[in-house]
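Provenance and format

Records in this collection were gathered into a single text stream. Each protein contributes a sequence line and a C-alpha coordinate line. The two records reproduced below are adjacent in the stream.
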Amino acid sequence: MKIEMHPTVLAYHEKNQSLPARPAVVLQATELKQLARDAGADDVGLIEISRPVLEQERHEILKAYPRTRTLMSIVVRMNREPIRSPSRSVANLEFHHCGDEVNEIAHRIVRQLEDRGIGAMNPSMGFPMEMADFPGKIWVVSHKPVAVAAGLGMMGIHRNVIHPRFGNFILLGTVLIDGEVSAYDDPISYNPCLECKLCVAACPVGAISADGQFDFSACYTHNYREFMGGFTDWVEQIVDSRNAVEYRQRVTDAESSSMWQSLSFGPNYKAAYCLSVCPAGEEVIGPYLADKKEHLQEIVRPLQDKHETIYVLKNSDAQQYVTRRFPHKNVKTVGNGLRPTTIEGFLKGAPHVFQPKQSAGLNATFHFTFTGDEISKGQPQRATFQIYDQTLRVTEGHNGHADLSITAEASTWMKFLRKERHIVWALLTRKIRLKGPLKLLVAFGKCFPQ
Protein backbone atom coordinates (compact mmCIF):
# COMPACT_ATOMS: atom_id res chain seq x y z
CA MET A 1 0.00 0.00 0.00
CA LYS A 2 1.27 3.43 -0.90
CA ILE A 3 1.50 5.85 1.98
CA GLU A 4 -0.90 8.24 0.21
CA MET A 5 -3.63 5.57 0.45
CA HIS A 6 -3.02 4.60 4.09
CA PRO A 7 -6.17 5.13 6.25
CA THR A 8 -4.26 7.34 8.70
CA VAL A 9 -3.03 9.61 5.90
CA LEU A 10 -6.47 9.79 4.28
CA ALA A 11 -8.10 10.64 7.61
CA TYR A 12 -5.57 13.36 8.27
CA HIS A 13 -6.08 15.03 4.90
CA GLU A 14 -9.87 14.79 5.21
CA LYS A 15 -9.73 16.45 8.61
CA ASN A 16 -7.26 19.18 7.72
CA GLN A 17 -7.86 19.96 4.05
CA SER A 18 -10.23 22.80 4.83
CA LEU A 19 -8.09 24.30 7.56
CA PRO A 20 -5.84 27.24 6.67
CA ALA A 21 -2.15 26.99 7.40
CA ARG A 22 -1.44 28.03 10.97
CA PRO A 23 0.43 31.34 10.91
CA ALA A 24 3.27 32.01 13.29
CA VAL A 25 1.79 33.53 16.44
CA VAL A 26 3.24 35.30 19.41
CA LEU A 27 2.17 33.54 22.59
CA GLN A 28 0.73 35.68 25.34
CA ALA A 29 2.98 35.76 28.39
CA THR A 30 0.11 36.15 30.85
CA GLU A 31 -1.69 33.13 29.42
CA LEU A 32 1.43 30.99 29.50
CA LYS A 33 2.12 31.91 33.11
CA GLN A 34 -1.45 31.19 34.12
CA LEU A 35 -1.23 27.84 32.38
CA ALA A 36 1.87 27.02 34.45
CA ARG A 37 0.21 28.09 37.69
CA ASP A 38 -2.89 26.08 36.87
CA ALA A 39 -0.61 23.09 36.35
CA GLY A 40 0.77 23.56 39.88
CA ALA A 41 3.78 25.88 39.61
CA ASP A 42 4.25 28.29 42.52
CA ASP A 43 6.02 30.83 40.33
CA VAL A 44 7.02 31.11 36.67
CA GLY A 45 9.22 33.24 34.44
CA LEU A 46 10.03 33.41 30.72
CA ILE A 47 13.21 34.17 28.78
CA GLU A 48 14.12 34.05 25.10
CA ILE A 49 16.62 31.53 23.69
CA SER A 50 18.83 34.40 22.50
CA ARG A 51 19.38 35.72 26.04
CA PRO A 52 23.17 36.26 26.52
CA VAL A 53 23.17 34.31 29.80
CA LEU A 54 22.45 31.17 27.75
CA GLU A 55 25.58 31.54 25.63
CA GLN A 56 27.21 28.47 27.20
CA GLU A 57 23.93 26.54 27.30
CA ARG A 58 22.37 27.27 23.92
CA HIS A 59 24.10 24.53 21.93
CA GLU A 60 23.00 21.75 24.31
CA ILE A 61 19.47 23.15 24.54
CA LEU A 62 19.04 23.31 20.78
CA LYS A 63 20.56 19.88 20.37
CA ALA A 64 17.88 18.51 22.69
CA TYR A 65 15.05 20.53 21.13
CA PRO A 66 16.08 22.44 17.98
CA ARG A 67 12.82 24.44 17.81
CA THR A 68 13.33 26.07 21.20
CA ARG A 69 12.57 29.79 21.10
CA THR A 70 11.43 30.40 24.66
CA LEU A 71 12.39 28.91 28.01
CA MET A 72 9.81 28.76 30.79
CA SER A 73 11.30 28.47 34.28
CA ILE A 74 9.05 27.12 37.02
CA VAL A 75 9.40 27.12 40.80
CA VAL A 76 7.85 24.58 43.15
CA ARG A 77 8.03 25.15 46.90
CA MET A 78 9.35 22.54 49.29
CA ASN A 79 8.06 22.19 52.84
CA ARG A 80 10.61 23.85 55.09
CA GLU A 81 10.53 21.79 58.28
CA PRO A 82 11.35 18.43 56.64
CA ILE A 83 14.41 19.97 54.94
CA ARG A 84 15.59 21.35 58.30
CA SER A 85 15.37 18.02 60.11
CA PRO A 86 18.62 16.36 61.24
CA SER A 87 16.96 13.11 60.11
CA ARG A 88 18.02 13.18 56.50
CA SER A 89 15.53 10.48 55.53
CA VAL A 90 12.84 13.07 56.24
CA ALA A 91 14.64 15.72 54.19
CA ASN A 92 15.29 13.37 51.29
CA LEU A 93 11.66 12.29 51.19
CA GLU A 94 10.76 15.95 50.67
CA PHE A 95 13.43 16.37 47.99
CA HIS A 96 12.18 13.31 46.11
CA HIS A 97 8.49 14.12 46.43
CA CYS A 98 8.94 17.72 45.34
CA GLY A 99 11.25 16.67 42.50
CA ASP A 100 8.61 14.30 41.19
CA GLU A 101 6.09 17.13 41.46
CA VAL A 102 8.27 19.45 39.37
CA ASN A 103 8.48 16.84 36.62
CA GLU A 104 4.73 16.19 36.77
CA ILE A 105 3.94 19.91 36.53
CA ALA A 106 6.30 20.36 33.59
CA HIS A 107 4.72 17.30 31.95
CA ARG A 108 1.25 18.81 32.34
CA ILE A 109 2.41 22.13 30.89
CA VAL A 110 3.83 20.38 27.82
CA ARG A 111 0.64 18.40 27.39
CA GLN A 112 -1.49 21.56 27.56
CA LEU A 113 0.72 23.30 25.01
CA GLU A 114 0.73 20.27 22.73
CA ASP A 115 -3.07 20.14 22.82
CA ARG A 116 -3.04 23.75 21.60
CA GLY A 117 -0.72 22.93 18.72
CA ILE A 118 2.38 24.41 20.37
CA GLY A 119 5.54 22.32 20.47
CA ALA A 120 7.26 22.00 23.85
CA MET A 121 9.61 19.71 25.77
CA ASN A 122 10.41 19.32 29.47
CA PRO A 123 13.91 18.11 30.39
CA SER A 124 14.22 16.36 33.75
CA MET A 125 14.54 18.62 36.80
CA GLY A 126 17.20 16.27 38.15
CA PHE A 127 17.68 12.62 37.38
CA PRO A 128 17.60 10.82 35.00
CA MET A 129 20.30 12.67 33.08
CA GLU A 130 22.63 12.04 30.14
CA MET A 131 24.95 9.75 32.09
CA ALA A 132 26.80 8.65 28.95
CA ASP A 133 28.52 12.05 29.15
CA PHE A 134 29.64 11.63 32.80
CA PRO A 135 31.86 13.08 34.25
CA GLY A 136 31.19 15.91 31.82
CA LYS A 137 27.99 17.94 31.49
CA ILE A 138 25.19 15.45 32.03
CA TRP A 139 22.17 17.77 32.18
CA VAL A 140 20.18 19.12 29.24
CA VAL A 141 19.37 22.48 30.83
CA SER A 142 21.02 24.30 33.73
CA HIS A 143 17.90 25.28 35.63
CA LYS A 144 19.57 27.75 38.01
CA PRO A 145 20.84 30.36 35.51
CA VAL A 146 17.54 30.13 33.62
CA ALA A 147 15.60 30.82 36.83
CA VAL A 148 17.84 33.76 37.73
CA ALA A 149 17.49 35.26 34.24
CA ALA A 150 13.70 34.79 34.45
CA GLY A 151 13.46 36.85 37.64
CA LEU A 152 12.79 33.96 40.03
CA GLY A 153 15.63 34.72 42.43
CA MET A 154 19.38 35.07 42.76
CA MET A 155 22.20 32.71 43.66
CA GLY A 156 23.24 32.81 47.31
CA ILE A 157 26.80 32.22 48.47
CA HIS A 158 25.79 28.57 48.95
CA ARG A 159 25.23 28.29 45.16
CA ASN A 160 21.48 27.73 45.44
CA VAL A 161 18.81 29.99 43.97
CA ILE A 162 17.02 32.03 46.63
CA HIS A 163 13.49 33.03 45.65
CA PRO A 164 12.47 36.47 47.00
CA ARG A 165 9.37 34.99 48.70
CA PHE A 166 10.05 31.30 49.25
CA GLY A 167 13.77 31.50 49.99
CA ASN A 168 15.90 28.55 48.94
CA PHE A 169 13.20 26.03 49.84
CA ILE A 170 12.39 25.49 46.18
CA LEU A 171 13.11 23.16 43.29
CA LEU A 172 13.35 24.29 39.68
CA GLY A 173 12.19 23.04 36.32
CA THR A 174 12.40 24.30 32.73
CA VAL A 175 10.08 23.89 29.74
CA LEU A 176 11.43 24.48 26.22
CA ILE A 177 8.79 26.08 23.98
CA ASP A 178 8.54 26.43 20.20
CA GLY A 179 7.20 29.95 20.03
CA GLU A 180 7.96 33.55 20.83
CA VAL A 181 6.24 35.25 23.74
CA SER A 182 4.71 38.70 24.02
CA ALA A 183 6.83 39.68 27.03
CA TYR A 184 9.92 38.24 28.69
CA ASP A 185 11.13 38.60 32.26
CA ASP A 186 14.25 40.25 33.66
CA PRO A 187 16.31 39.37 36.73
CA ILE A 188 15.21 40.86 40.03
CA SER A 189 17.03 44.00 41.18
CA TYR A 190 18.53 42.64 44.43
CA ASN A 191 19.92 39.44 45.90
CA PRO A 192 17.73 37.89 48.62
CA CYS A 193 20.87 36.31 50.15
CA LEU A 194 21.44 37.88 53.58
CA GLU A 195 25.12 36.86 53.66
CA CYS A 196 24.44 35.70 57.23
CA LYS A 197 27.05 32.94 56.73
CA LEU A 198 24.87 30.31 58.43
CA CYS A 199 25.44 28.04 55.42
CA VAL A 200 29.18 28.47 56.04
CA ALA A 201 28.74 27.45 59.66
CA ALA A 202 26.54 24.43 58.89
CA CYS A 203 28.44 22.87 55.97
CA PRO A 204 30.18 19.77 57.36
CA VAL A 205 32.98 19.81 54.77
CA GLY A 206 33.76 23.54 54.60
CA ALA A 207 32.68 23.74 50.97
CA ILE A 208 31.38 27.31 51.42
CA SER A 209 33.89 29.96 52.44
CA ALA A 210 32.98 33.20 54.16
CA ASP A 211 34.54 35.10 51.25
CA GLY A 212 32.19 33.42 48.78
CA GLN A 213 34.57 30.78 47.40
CA PHE A 214 33.07 27.35 46.77
CA ASP A 215 34.82 23.96 46.98
CA PHE A 216 32.86 21.90 44.45
CA SER A 217 34.93 18.78 45.08
CA ALA A 218 34.24 18.79 48.84
CA CYS A 219 30.48 19.25 48.37
CA TYR A 220 30.29 16.64 45.63
CA THR A 221 32.34 14.01 47.48
CA HIS A 222 30.19 14.10 50.64
CA ASN A 223 26.72 15.36 49.77
CA TYR A 224 26.54 13.30 46.58
CA ARG A 225 28.20 10.20 48.03
CA GLU A 226 25.35 7.95 46.86
CA PHE A 227 25.09 9.54 43.42
CA MET A 228 27.26 9.08 40.30
CA GLY A 229 30.91 9.11 41.42
CA GLY A 230 30.25 7.80 44.91
CA PHE A 231 28.44 4.82 43.44
CA THR A 232 31.35 4.01 41.11
CA ASP A 233 33.75 4.25 44.07
CA TRP A 234 31.53 1.87 46.04
CA VAL A 235 31.52 -0.61 43.15
CA GLU A 236 35.33 -0.44 43.03
CA GLN A 237 35.41 -1.17 46.78
CA ILE A 238 33.45 -4.34 46.05
CA VAL A 239 35.75 -5.32 43.19
CA ASP A 240 38.92 -4.66 45.20
CA SER A 241 37.73 -6.68 48.21
CA ARG A 242 39.11 -10.23 48.33
CA ASN A 243 36.11 -11.57 50.26
CA ALA A 244 33.11 -10.56 52.35
CA VAL A 245 35.21 -9.98 55.45
CA GLU A 246 37.48 -7.50 53.69
CA TYR A 247 34.46 -5.79 52.12
CA ARG A 248 32.95 -5.26 55.57
CA GLN A 249 36.25 -3.74 56.68
CA ARG A 250 36.04 -1.28 53.79
CA VAL A 251 32.28 -0.61 53.89
CA THR A 252 30.15 -0.78 57.03
CA ASP A 253 26.80 -2.54 57.12
CA ALA A 254 25.12 0.85 57.58
CA GLU A 255 26.83 2.19 54.45
CA SER A 256 25.81 -0.85 52.41
CA SER A 257 22.24 -0.48 53.61
CA SER A 258 22.25 3.23 52.81
CA MET A 259 23.47 2.53 49.29
CA TRP A 260 20.70 -0.07 48.90
CA GLN A 261 18.20 2.54 50.03
CA SER A 262 19.42 5.03 47.43
CA LEU A 263 19.36 2.41 44.69
CA SER A 264 15.83 1.34 45.66
CA PHE A 265 14.12 4.62 46.45
CA GLY A 266 16.22 7.31 44.77
CA PRO A 267 19.66 8.71 45.62
CA ASN A 268 19.85 10.41 49.00
CA TYR A 269 21.77 13.56 49.84
CA LYS A 270 24.12 13.25 52.81
CA ALA A 271 23.80 16.87 53.91
CA ALA A 272 22.30 19.81 51.98
CA TYR A 273 22.58 21.63 55.32
CA CYS A 274 23.13 24.91 53.49
CA LEU A 275 19.48 24.76 52.38
CA SER A 276 18.30 23.75 55.83
CA VAL A 277 19.66 26.74 57.73
CA CYS A 278 19.09 29.53 55.20
CA PRO A 279 16.67 32.17 56.60
CA ALA A 280 16.32 34.24 53.41
CA GLY A 281 13.00 34.93 51.71
CA GLU A 282 10.00 37.04 52.69
CA GLU A 283 7.96 34.03 53.86
CA VAL A 284 10.93 32.48 55.69
CA ILE A 285 12.76 35.30 57.42
CA GLY A 286 10.23 36.18 60.15
CA PRO A 287 11.24 33.70 62.88
CA TYR A 288 14.93 34.41 62.24
CA LEU A 289 14.46 38.16 62.72
CA ALA A 290 12.34 37.56 65.80
CA ASP A 291 14.98 35.44 67.55
CA LYS A 292 18.29 34.73 65.82
CA LYS A 293 19.60 32.83 68.83
CA GLU A 294 16.67 30.43 68.73
CA HIS A 295 17.18 29.89 64.98
CA LEU A 296 20.78 28.98 65.72
CA GLN A 297 19.88 26.63 68.56
CA GLU A 298 16.92 24.88 66.90
CA ILE A 299 18.08 24.62 63.30
CA VAL A 300 21.84 25.14 62.95
CA ARG A 301 23.26 23.47 66.07
CA PRO A 302 21.52 20.09 65.66
CA LEU A 303 23.14 19.75 62.24
CA GLN A 304 26.54 20.81 63.56
CA ASP A 305 26.33 18.48 66.56
CA LYS A 306 25.07 15.46 64.64
CA HIS A 307 27.29 12.38 64.85
CA GLU A 308 27.68 11.14 61.29
CA THR A 309 30.18 9.92 58.72
CA ILE A 310 31.69 12.64 56.55
CA TYR A 311 33.14 11.54 53.20
CA VAL A 312 36.25 13.34 51.97
CA LEU A 313 39.14 12.89 49.59
CA LYS A 314 42.40 11.94 51.24
CA ASN A 315 44.69 14.93 51.84
CA SER A 316 41.98 17.37 50.77
CA ASP A 317 41.00 20.71 52.28
CA ALA A 318 37.76 19.08 53.41
CA GLN A 319 39.59 16.40 55.40
CA GLN A 320 41.55 19.03 57.30
CA TYR A 321 38.43 21.14 57.85
CA VAL A 322 36.25 18.36 59.30
CA THR A 323 39.01 17.10 61.56
CA ARG A 324 39.52 20.58 62.98
CA ARG A 325 35.97 21.95 63.00
CA PHE A 326 33.89 18.85 63.79
CA PRO A 327 36.12 16.39 65.71
CA HIS A 328 33.04 14.43 66.87
CA LYS A 329 32.14 13.48 63.28
CA ASN A 330 33.62 10.35 61.73
CA VAL A 331 35.86 11.14 58.75
CA LYS A 332 36.15 8.56 55.99
CA THR A 333 38.39 8.99 52.97
CA VAL A 334 36.89 7.82 49.69
CA GLY A 335 37.06 8.41 45.95
CA ASN A 336 34.49 10.53 44.14
CA GLY A 337 34.68 9.24 40.57
CA LEU A 338 35.66 12.60 39.11
CA ARG A 339 38.16 11.17 36.68
CA PRO A 340 38.50 13.13 33.43
CA THR A 341 38.32 11.10 30.25
CA THR A 342 39.60 13.78 27.87
CA ILE A 343 42.15 16.58 27.95
CA GLU A 344 39.33 19.06 27.49
CA GLY A 345 37.62 17.60 30.55
CA PHE A 346 40.85 17.84 32.52
CA LEU A 347 41.35 21.50 31.64
CA LYS A 348 37.74 22.51 32.27
CA GLY A 349 37.41 20.48 35.43
CA ALA A 350 40.65 21.50 37.15
CA PRO A 351 39.29 24.76 38.69
CA HIS A 352 36.39 22.81 40.23
CA VAL A 353 38.61 20.30 42.05
CA PHE A 354 41.53 22.60 42.91
CA GLN A 355 42.30 22.63 46.66
CA PRO A 356 43.52 26.10 47.70
CA LYS A 357 44.89 25.15 51.13
CA GLN A 358 46.83 22.22 49.69
CA SER A 359 48.57 24.69 47.39
CA ALA A 360 49.85 26.86 50.26
CA GLY A 361 53.44 27.90 49.60
CA LEU A 362 53.32 26.93 45.92
CA ASN A 363 53.74 29.81 43.48
CA ALA A 364 54.54 28.48 40.04
CA THR A 365 53.57 28.43 36.36
CA PHE A 366 53.10 25.11 34.56
CA HIS A 367 53.13 24.74 30.79
CA PHE A 368 51.35 21.66 29.43
CA THR A 369 51.71 20.29 25.89
CA PHE A 370 49.48 17.33 25.04
CA THR A 371 50.11 15.17 21.98
CA GLY A 372 48.66 12.03 20.42
CA ASP A 373 45.79 10.80 18.30
CA GLU A 374 43.24 11.88 20.94
CA ILE A 375 44.02 15.56 20.35
CA SER A 376 41.57 17.19 17.93
CA LYS A 377 42.91 18.39 14.59
CA GLY A 378 46.13 16.44 15.20
CA GLN A 379 47.93 19.50 16.57
CA PRO A 380 49.50 19.59 20.05
CA GLN A 381 47.19 21.16 22.63
CA ARG A 382 48.82 23.68 24.95
CA ALA A 383 47.63 25.08 28.26
CA THR A 384 49.01 27.06 31.18
CA PHE A 385 48.27 26.49 34.87
CA GLN A 386 49.22 29.39 37.12
CA ILE A 387 49.05 28.69 40.86
CA TYR A 388 49.75 31.74 42.99
CA ASP A 389 48.57 32.75 46.46
CA GLN A 390 46.31 29.70 46.72
CA THR A 391 44.45 30.52 43.51
CA LEU A 392 44.41 28.76 40.14
CA ARG A 393 44.17 30.20 36.66
CA VAL A 394 43.95 27.97 33.59
CA THR A 395 44.44 29.49 30.13
CA GLU A 396 44.91 28.26 26.57
CA GLY A 397 48.40 28.30 25.10
CA HIS A 398 51.69 28.89 26.87
CA ASN A 399 51.67 32.12 28.85
CA GLY A 400 54.44 33.58 30.97
CA HIS A 401 57.67 31.90 32.07
CA ALA A 402 57.26 28.22 32.93
CA ASP A 403 58.69 26.90 36.18
CA LEU A 404 57.85 23.42 34.91
CA SER A 405 57.06 22.31 31.36
CA ILE A 406 55.19 19.03 30.90
CA THR A 407 54.88 17.31 27.53
CA ALA A 408 52.58 14.32 27.69
CA GLU A 409 50.90 11.86 25.40
CA ALA A 410 47.23 12.57 26.04
CA SER A 411 46.16 8.96 26.64
CA THR A 412 49.03 8.40 29.06
CA TRP A 413 48.22 11.58 31.00
CA MET A 414 44.62 10.44 31.32
CA LYS A 415 45.70 7.02 32.58
CA PHE A 416 48.07 8.72 35.04
CA LEU A 417 45.22 10.84 36.40
CA ARG A 418 42.99 7.77 36.63
CA LYS A 419 45.79 5.88 38.45
CA GLU A 420 46.04 3.34 35.65
CA ARG A 421 49.68 4.27 34.93
CA HIS A 422 52.44 5.16 37.38
CA ILE A 423 54.32 8.39 36.81
CA VAL A 424 57.69 6.58 37.03
CA TRP A 425 56.70 4.28 34.14
CA ALA A 426 55.48 7.27 32.13
CA LEU A 427 58.75 9.15 32.68
CA LEU A 428 60.94 6.13 31.88
CA THR A 429 59.07 5.45 28.64
CA ARG A 430 59.08 9.20 27.87
CA LYS A 431 55.33 9.18 27.43
CA ILE A 432 55.54 12.12 29.84
CA ARG A 433 58.55 14.45 29.69
CA LEU A 434 59.47 17.18 32.13
CA LYS A 435 61.56 20.30 31.79
CA GLY A 436 62.07 21.52 35.31
CA PRO A 437 62.15 20.04 38.82
CA LEU A 438 60.14 16.88 39.48
CA LYS A 439 59.21 18.22 42.92
CA LEU A 440 57.01 20.81 41.22
CA LEU A 441 54.97 18.03 39.60
CA VAL A 442 54.55 16.43 43.03
CA ALA A 443 53.46 19.79 44.47
CA PHE A 444 51.06 20.23 41.54
CA GLY A 445 49.48 16.82 42.23
CA LYS A 446 48.84 17.73 45.88
CA CYS A 447 46.57 20.56 44.68
CA PHE A 448 44.30 18.03 42.97
CA PRO A 449 43.90 15.05 45.36
CA GLN A 450 41.92 12.07 44.13
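Adjacent record:
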Amino acid sequence: MPEITTKPRTKTQPKTERPKLYKVILVNDDFTPREFVVTVLKGEFKLSEDQARRVMITAHQRGVCVVAVFTRDVAETKAARATDAGKAKGYPLMFTTEPEE
Protein backbone atom coordinates (compact mmCIF):
# COMPACT_ATOMS: atom_id res chain seq x y z
CA MET A 1 0.00 0.00 0.00
CA PRO A 2 1.39 3.44 -0.90
CA GLU A 3 2.05 5.77 1.96
CA ILE A 4 -0.08 8.93 1.93
CA THR A 5 1.35 11.98 3.51
CA THR A 6 -0.87 14.86 4.40
CA LYS A 7 0.27 18.34 5.00
CA PRO A 8 -1.70 20.37 7.50
CA ARG A 9 -3.04 23.60 6.09
CA THR A 10 -1.90 26.67 7.89
CA LYS A 11 -4.29 29.52 8.19
CA THR A 12 -2.79 32.87 7.55
CA GLN A 13 -4.62 35.77 9.01
CA PRO A 14 -3.85 39.11 7.46
CA LYS A 15 -2.58 41.63 9.95
CA THR A 16 -4.79 44.64 9.95
CA GLU A 17 -3.33 47.97 10.82
CA ARG A 18 -5.24 50.76 12.40
CA PRO A 19 -5.92 53.48 9.85
CA LYS A 20 -3.67 56.51 10.00
CA LEU A 21 -5.24 59.53 11.61
CA TYR A 22 -5.38 63.05 10.23
CA LYS A 23 -5.76 66.37 12.02
CA VAL A 24 -8.33 68.89 10.85
CA ILE A 25 -6.81 72.34 11.26
CA LEU A 26 -8.61 75.69 11.38
CA VAL A 27 -6.55 78.42 9.71
CA ASN A 28 -7.12 81.95 11.02
CA ASP A 29 -8.12 84.79 8.75
CA ASP A 30 -8.99 88.39 9.53
CA PHE A 31 -12.26 88.52 7.60
CA THR A 32 -14.53 85.67 8.73
CA PRO A 33 -16.73 86.76 11.66
CA ARG A 34 -16.01 84.92 14.89
CA GLU A 35 -19.65 83.97 15.40
CA PHE A 36 -19.75 82.34 11.97
CA VAL A 37 -16.63 80.29 12.77
CA VAL A 38 -18.24 79.14 16.02
CA THR A 39 -21.41 78.18 14.14
CA VAL A 40 -19.43 76.10 11.61
CA LEU A 41 -17.43 74.38 14.36
CA LYS A 42 -20.62 73.50 16.23
CA GLY A 43 -22.43 72.31 13.13
CA GLU A 44 -19.73 70.33 11.32
CA PHE A 45 -17.60 69.10 14.23
CA LYS A 46 -20.33 68.82 16.89
CA LEU A 47 -18.41 70.97 19.36
CA SER A 48 -20.16 72.63 22.27
CA GLU A 49 -20.45 76.42 22.33
CA ASP A 50 -17.56 76.65 24.81
CA GLN A 51 -15.31 74.25 22.88
CA ALA A 52 -16.01 76.03 19.60
CA ARG A 53 -15.15 79.42 21.12
CA ARG A 54 -11.89 78.08 22.57
CA VAL A 55 -10.86 76.59 19.20
CA MET A 56 -11.74 79.85 17.41
CA ILE A 57 -9.80 82.00 19.92
CA THR A 58 -6.77 79.67 19.79
CA ALA A 59 -6.72 79.88 15.99
CA HIS A 60 -7.06 83.66 16.23
CA GLN A 61 -4.14 83.97 18.66
CA ARG A 62 -1.78 81.37 17.17
CA GLY A 63 -2.79 81.43 13.50
CA VAL A 64 -3.95 77.79 13.44
CA CYS A 65 -5.67 75.33 15.75
CA VAL A 66 -6.31 71.58 15.58
CA VAL A 67 -10.07 71.09 15.64
CA ALA A 68 -10.28 67.28 15.72
CA VAL A 69 -8.57 64.06 14.60
CA PHE A 70 -10.22 61.55 12.26
CA THR A 71 -9.38 58.92 9.69
CA ARG A 72 -8.26 60.41 6.38
CA ASP A 73 -11.58 60.23 4.54
CA VAL A 74 -13.58 61.68 7.41
CA ALA A 75 -11.03 64.44 8.05
CA GLU A 76 -10.90 65.50 4.40
CA THR A 77 -14.68 65.45 4.08
CA LYS A 78 -15.27 67.51 7.21
CA ALA A 79 -12.54 70.02 6.27
CA ALA A 80 -13.98 70.42 2.78
CA ARG A 81 -17.55 70.84 4.05
CA ALA A 82 -16.51 73.41 6.66
CA THR A 83 -14.44 75.35 4.09
CA ASP A 84 -17.34 75.22 1.62
CA ALA A 85 -19.69 76.62 4.27
CA GLY A 86 -17.46 79.67 4.49
CA LYS A 87 -17.22 80.04 0.72
CA ALA A 88 -21.00 79.83 0.43
CA LYS A 89 -21.24 82.93 2.65
CA GLY A 90 -18.37 84.69 0.88
CA TYR A 91 -15.78 84.24 3.64
CA PRO A 92 -12.20 83.00 3.24
CA LEU A 93 -12.68 80.45 6.06
CA MET A 94 -10.23 77.58 5.57
CA PHE A 95 -9.75 74.18 7.13
CA THR A 96 -6.88 71.88 6.15
CA THR A 97 -5.81 68.36 7.02
CA GLU A 98 -2.44 66.83 7.78
CA PRO A 99 -1.29 63.43 9.04
CA GLU A 100 -1.02 63.01 12.78
CA GLU A 101 2.48 62.09 13.87
